[in-house]
Amino acid sequence: MQAIVCKAWGPPEDLVLESVVLPALQPGQVRIRVRAAGVNFPDVLIVQKKYQQQPALPFTPGNEVAGEVIEVASDVVHLRPGDAVVSFCNLGGFAEEVIAPADATHAMAPGLSFETAAAFTLTYGTSWHALCDRAALKAGETVLVLGASGGVGLAAIEIARAVGARVIAAASSADKLALCREHGADALINYEEEDLREAIKRHTNGRGPDVVFDPVGGKYAEPAFRSIAWRGRYLVVGFANGQIPAVPWNLALLKSASLVGVFWGEFVRREPLAHEAGMASLLGWLSEGRLRPHVSRTYTLAETAQALIDLRDRRATGKLVIVP
Ligand SMILES: NC(=O)c1ccc[n+]([C@@H]2O[C@H](COP(=O)([O-])OP(=O)(O)OC[C@H]3O[C@@H](n4cnc5c(N)ncnc54)[C@H](OP(=O)(O)O)[C@@H]3O)[C@@H](O)[C@H]2O)c1
Are 28 and 60 in contact (CB under 8 A)? Predict the structure, then answer.
């Protein structure tokens, strides 16, 4: 079977498509025919040795797939060949087939396409954990979403609206902001053209947002944290900008504000029941049409490197998906 292979640490341009033979199944594993694989920011980082996980070379990246079960190990009871599933395979997803842990593989929600299923759980799960669980967002509060047209950003807009919050979306271009509006944003800020602090003041009558959802980091973090409302919660989701901000701690004191970390993968491992409750809420909102996952582009397996390049170079909106 064909798979994308990272043979040496480096940019996505160095990835190759090769014929690979998968090993026999070990206990607790399942073999899946990949119908769609979601592209996530860690995929861009992991091939460059810039991610917290550094697998042995060579390896196949890709950690979120949807597909059909081909084979299960003899100790796996909750899955059967032919089942449509989503799986967090950790690695190996950018391939025609992947061997995944059975306990990270679950029946696909009914009514979803493989593309949507592969684009849903990680991004919406992260944004739910951040807004609903870590920030305890309430109806009537105001949320500022940075990087709002990206994967977790668009999901955050929709989830905040589903909760009944008001959403200010911040992104770098008019096109990206138009997409945020389509997905429910109430107010828009182009943070490449406008002064972020002034724009936040204008859109909140000087009060500031109750919650800031930040998957970007870098230069936007300090003005956003300075603008937060009394008792605000600042969600540290990611650093797509590449720079981890160093924000003065006195800003937290001045607003009685909280700096709140968000680590979805570890949340799922440590608190599986809370994660399941979150997924149930999300699937409910999805069936009511309140969430509309946006797959902006699909790529063939051979085009995987281009998908990672587009994500790295800030050209993606919503989610990118590989369809082997
Ligand atoms: N904590 C967790 O559990 C968790 C889970 C999932 C993802 N994440 C992290 O969240 C971040 C966003 O993930 P995502 O999947 O939403 O990515 P994404 O779709 O690429 O969105 C990131 C957004 O960041 C903005 N950005 C600003 N500077 C950038 C730069 N130099 N390079 C790339 N993007 C830049 C872009 O919007 P503009 O062009 O509009 O600025 C882009 O839309 C990543 O750091 C990811 O690792 C964390």
Answer: no
Please give the distance, rounded to the nearest whole angstrom, from the Cα atom of residue 315 to the centre of ligand 1: 11
Of residues 40, 42, 2, 45, the one with CA closest to residue 20: 2
Q: What is the pLDDT of residues 159-192, one digit of tens each?
A: 999 999 999 999 999 999 999 999 999 999 999 9
- Closest residue to atom 19 of ligand 1, CA basis: 150
pTM attached to this predicted model: 0.95
Task: Give the residue carrying structure tokens 């593309």.
Answer: 115
Q: 188-191: long-range contacts at Cβ-Cβ below 8 A with a sequence spacing of 24 or more?
A: 191/146, 191/220
* Ligand 1 probe mutation, 243, 314, 319, most atoms within 8 A of CB: 314
Q: Fill in the amino acid letter for 292.
A: R
Ligand 1 centroid–CA 172 distance in Å is: 12
Architecture of domain 123-265: 3-Layer(aba) Sandwich (3.40)
CATH architecture of 2-120+293-322: Alpha-Beta Complex (3.90)
Determine whether the shortest distance from the Cβ of 147 to ligand 1 is under 6 A: yes
Among the listed residues 156, 212, 215, the one whose alpha carbon sits nearest the alpha carbon of residue 180: 156
- In contact, 168 and 144? CB cutoff 8 Å: yes
Domain map (residue ranges) of the chain: 2-120+293-322, 123-265
Residue 320 near ligand 1, beta carbon < 6 Å: no
